[in-house]
UniProtKB/TrEMBL annotation:
<protein>
    <submittedName>
        <fullName>Uncharacterized protein</fullName>
    </submittedName>
</protein>
Length: 83
């Protein structure tokens, strides 16, 4: 069963319905889009560390290897932060 989007406007002339729907569409289009959040310094540092970790270990990208690599990365990063 299809929902009739014009049901709230029953009884109005067709031209009025079209004007109201056009204005609603215009308002929806003018809404600010979701803001794209910049990476935090901590996230940038983690990405840089992970890149270094990958280069040092020349990790191959397979799903199984990736989850193991993440565990290794966390250990490696923790050890390097203490130095």
């Amino acid at each position: 069963m299809e929902k009739n989007i014009l049901s709230p406007f029953e009884g109005l002339p067709e031209d009025d319905k079209r004007i109201i729907l056009a204005r609603q569409a215009e308002l929806r289009m003018n809404r600010p889009k979701k803001e794209v959040r910049d990476l935090t310094n901590a996230e940038i540092a983690e990405l840089e560390d992970f890149k270094e970790f990958c280069e040092l270990n020349k990790i191959e990208s397979s799903k199984r290897q990736a989850s193991k690599s993440k565990e290794d990365f966390i250990k490696w990063r923790y050890e390097n932060q203490r130095e």
